[in-house]
Design brief:
43% of the residues lie in helices and 14% in strands. It has helices at residues 5-8, 19-29, 48-59, 72-86, 100-112, 129-135, 155-162, 183-196, 234-237, 252-264, 271-281, 284-307, 334-345, 371-390; strands at 35-37, 95-98, 118-123, 139-144, 167-171, 199-203, 228-233, 246-249, 313-314, 322-326, 347-351, 362-366. The strands form two sheets. The protein has a seven-stranded mixed beta sheet with strand order 2-8-7-6-5-3-4, sandwiched between helices. A five-stranded mixed beta sheet has the order 1-11-12-10-9. Helix 3 (48-59) packs antiparallel against helix 11, helix 4 runs parallel beside helix 11 and helix 12 runs parallel beside helix 14. 51% of the residues are buried.
């Protein structure tokens, strides 16, 4: 018996983009010391008070089936957070709690697309995006951006593909580039969605990590609340990656159908996880700023280190926990450089090609190790690039 084409075709017949990361993990398992700058995993753990609340809730008995849409109290808290930060009226009926942002991305595309519908997404993209679209039965259509535009999507490029499509997936602050979409960019995205009747799926899991500019949720733009599904998560904002708690915010009627989908798939999120998430959200913006602070510091370190040389370029690092580095001066692809860096310097980064063709000749660096180790790794990376450029 053969498995379905749906699951065997998730990666489109190619790599899923994680090859360098997996090689680094094999080296670590063999006892090699590797500096990992690959995945978006905080170097701090979930804060003790959040874990204590999780423990309390579990001991108190919140270990059975939780309400599939999410507990009323957590849905209310997410709704308040969204309403306060966007100005868009939002109630619990606009919120579905999901097992993390990845499950929310899949569910949002299940809501927006029928099998065979064209689903648009932006290149560079988070590595799971095309497989998520295929898994939902949609036909992925990528729209390339340009390094010279700081990877901000142009409305004209969107219009070239939008007619006949069903949805558009965007992500700001952006993984992998670290770019925050400007108001003008988001206005262009909204105009295309309204004109060509697209669902907009807005991945906003990095909304608390903004170093320049501001985070603007496109749901807040005129005529967009009824056609936008926003994906959020506790993972990045509260260092709760392993807890797997996220949400979708959207029109009430769509959320009601998504509750039905959750009933037939995930059957909700554990109650003690939701109680801990509610407690975490109650800590407010100061706590979120504390979680984000290491990445703000490391961004400044990177700007200083990279400003002292001319081989490795830095795409404007405006948000999120990543840097996008331009290493085209070395004459190497991002993938070749990443493998070479891993072999000779035992530093693991993600090649730009893992995130699409637009990021070829680039690297994604996660700012997820201690400040001094991060600075040392960046200096070694630059020195390695300079050696190749000199050749």
């Amino acid at each position: 018996m053969q498995p379905s084409g749906r699951i065997t075709g998730l990666t489109g017949g190619g790599s899923d983009g994680w090859d360098v990361f997996l090689k680094a993990r094999r080296m670590i398992a063999e006892g090699v010391k590797v500096t990992e700058l690959t995945i978006g995993e905080h170097d701090i753990r979930t804060a003790a008070p959040i874990l204590q609340e999780m423990h309390r809730a579990a001991l108190a008995g919140h270990t059975g089936y939780a309400a599939v849409p999410g507990t009323a109290s957590l849905r209310d808290a997410v709704a308040r957070r969204v309403a306060e930060r966007t100005g868009v009226p939002t109630s619990r009926d606009n919120v579905l709690i999901t097992p993390g942002g990845q499950a929310a991305l899949f569910a949002a595309h299940m809501a927006a697309c029928d099998p065979g519908d064209i689903a648009l997404y932006i290149d560079p993209y988070y590595a799971t995006y095309p497989g998520t679209l295929r898994g939902a039965g949609a036909v992925p259509q990528v729209i390339r951006t340009r390094a010279e535009d700081a990877f901000q999507p142009r409305a004209d490029d969107l219009r070239a593909y939008s007619k006949g499509a069903r949805s558009l997936l965007v992500n700001s602050p952006n993984n992998p580039t670290g770019v925050v979409y400007s108001d003008a960019t988001l206005g262009g995205i909204a105009e295309v969605c309204r004109t060509d009747d697209l669902w907009l799926i807005s991945d906003e899991v990095y909304d608390t990590q903004v170093w320049e500019g501001r985070h603007l949720s496109p749901r807040a733009l005129p005529g967009m609340a009824e056609r936008t599904l926003v994906v959020g998560s506790m993972s990045k904002s509260h260092a709760m990656t392993g807890s797997r708690c996220g949400w979708i915010v959207g029109p009430e009627a769509v959320i009601a159908h998504l509750v039905t989908l959750a009933t037939h798939t995930t059957y909700g999120v554990p109650g003690f996880i939701q109680d801990a998430s509610l407690f975490a959200l109650s800590q407010g913006r100061d706590f979120e700023a504390e979680i984000a602070a290491p990445f703000r510091r490391r961004r400044a370190i990177a700007q200083r280190v990279l400003g002292g040389q001319n081989t490795v370029g830095l795409i404007p690092a405006q948000g999120a926990m990543y840097l996008m580095l331009d290493i085209r001066a070395t004459g190497m692809t991002g993938e070749a450089f990443a493998y070479d860096l891993l072999e000779h310097e035992h530093i693991a980064v993600m090649p730009g090609e893992s995130f699409g063709a637009a990021a070829a000749g680039h690297l994604r660096v996660a700012m997820t190790i201690a400040d001094d180790a991060f600075e040392n790794a960046l200096r070694r990376l630059c020195a390695h690039a300079e050696k190749h450029a000199a050749r």
